[in-house]
Please model this.
Amino acid sequence: MSPDTPVFLAACRREPVPYTPIWIMRQAGRYLPEYRAVRERVSFETLTRTPELAAQVTLQPLRRFPLDAAILFSDIMTPLQGMGIDLTFEPGPVVREPIRTAAAIEALRPLVPERDVPFVLDSIRLIRAAAPRHVPLIGFAGAPFTLFCYLVGGRPSKEFESARAFLYAEPEAAGRLLDQLADAMGAYLAAQAAAGAQALMLFESWGGLLAPAQFEPFALRAARRTLAVLRGCGVPLIYYLNQGSALLGQLAPIEADVIGLDWRSPLGTARRVLGPDKAVQGNLDPAALFAPPAALAAAAGQVLLEAGGAPGHIFNLGHGIWPHTDPDAVARLVDVVHERSQRPGAGG
Amino acid sequence: MSPDTPVFLAACRREPVPYTPIWIMRQAGRYLPEYRAVRERVSFETLTRTPELAAQVTLQPLRRFPLDAAILFSDIMTPLQGMGIDLTFEPGPVVREPIRTAAAIEALRPLVPERDVPFVLDSIRLIRAAAPRHVPLIGFAGAPFTLFCYLVGGRPSKEFESARAFLYAEPEAAGRLLDQLADAMGAYLAAQAAAGAQALMLFESWGGLLAPAQFEPFALRAARRTLAVLRGCGVPLIYYLNQGSALLGQLAPIEADVIGLDWRSPLGTARRVLGPDKAVQGNLDPAALFAPPAALAAAAGQVLLEAGGAPGHIFNLGHGIWPHTDPDAVARLVDVVHERSQRPGAGG
Model:
């Protein structure tokens, strides 16, 4: 890698790196007292819509830990409000009128990011101006099927029954809604890159609820439609799939540079299935942060071992960090990953 | 198979059968109006503790559909009340004092089924007396780690964070609690078999939340401890694992005759990984029951195809049937599975 390339971006491109970079899903969040202090003053929604505050909390974990990337503080549902969806956070997203008819699908308006979510783009500009140069900023969006789950279901759910039933009951209408969401997220992520995001991530939190025969024509097809828009942005693309152990074989052709995996898919297996053209991101069990230091170090070492030491691994948890996690455990994790993955001869 | 052997039991033992047997997880339940009618009169808990009523609802789906097995109407938490756990159903199980200390673990008393849950054994006797002879009765229990999730967490949860953190934070105490639960469930299932249950099933609803390195020493070890007690019962043993796609490779040595799989693990892959000594049970997506008849038939046909037509497949959903399912769709599913799997020359 060039000495000027941040380690995280080099790893996304499977270039040699001097150590394995690490960032943590939901690294700006409730486990940090300084985040909770901000949230005592403002609602979650206000926080996501106020660039100064969103930038402030995005940068909070970077002050504590030598993380290798920042991720925009926002919510996957935020752009949907810009498309005319009436939703609230209670605290999970609740859609006042779930979308279950052709008319409701037709009524969705396309997302024009500069008009509909300017505060997100302003947040990105503020973060870029303030973040250390070697810590790239990741922009993100919900993958179309994951957004579909909330829009059809109306509220968070363990199984998202109504959304999954809708795929079987009305496959054509479901496909149209997914297309609209895919196009909106394509525009949204492209605008984030234009505003300064240096990598883009699609969160497929609920695609892993689908049977393999449903995943490909619905979730994967829609995610690929979004990613196709983004190839020209010139930044690494990351596709995170939760509960996707049975679906890895379907991911090989996806147009992402990096596949993010939950804590249940061993990285060694994943790398074999995905092939040499994909980097992998993950996948320590978030529960491991509750282990004593030696056991945490062992669990982190196991993830590094599974990843095989080759270029193209970004360390992360396999899911978002839990709100009750001790920040000191995060500090220990970041240090142990950096120390144990040192490759003195490699890269800049 | 002997002409006297019910098709379901023959399939559990991987003997040739004239057609693929089918039963449905939660087949006695809220999607049936006759079940809801009973529940209008009595609480869920009363229903599980009143043998006449438990037997009545167990038999309800057999009157509607030509199912190949019955399953005891009960709850996986029911025997824990017999061990001194103070819990209520709201409607999910809520444990008044979650178990998180060595003292609380020591205070659990062993389960003596005849003393602590006689109504379950009485239910089994009533069902056996009333059920058609060719429809065997399945008894069941929660797998130890799944019960552990509720006991440590205190209430249902999407991620069971506290239970999973407990494994990392206090592995020895966790192991002791799992051992106690394993022994209790061993005694419970053995008593069910003695009372007349003709197959025994362990429901590992939450084991698939574990990383592979945690699954083996905690969930799998405890389940095997339970199953070891049951080998002498002379009835087929079924281990159902939800979200277990990444864990199938660890299941090959388990002492169960049948592995039940969720809707995300293709049966063909599962059979290859599990080897020829295991039958498989599953695994239609519960959402497929919301498809139009032709699409439902196609989805069921796909499951039969994946299973390979060989002996040792019991058709089921990959998870419990959803409360809003149309009973007519269940009728269509049972018929289509029986019709499409006809093997006129095979078996009795």
About this structure: Chain A has one domain: 7-340.
